UniProtKB/TrEMBL annotation:
InterPro entries: DUF1059. It comes from Streptomyces orinoci. This is DUF1059 domain-containing protein.
Amino acid sequence: MTRKVADCRRFPSETNCTLTIAGEEEEVVQAATEHAVSVHKHTDSPELREQIRNTLELEKTSDTA
């Protein structure tokens, strides 16, 4: 499973938000959208979800076990 990450620290905000969300792509898009609406006062829309999806990164994993 490839996990994706949404990291608010990558984007300027009035609250200096530091939230990071990681999981499967659809989970992250859903959670990040809810966060963007409730905390950052964005409007939930297909455009917002697509913007979020386009900013997701692959989770960095450690090769050490």
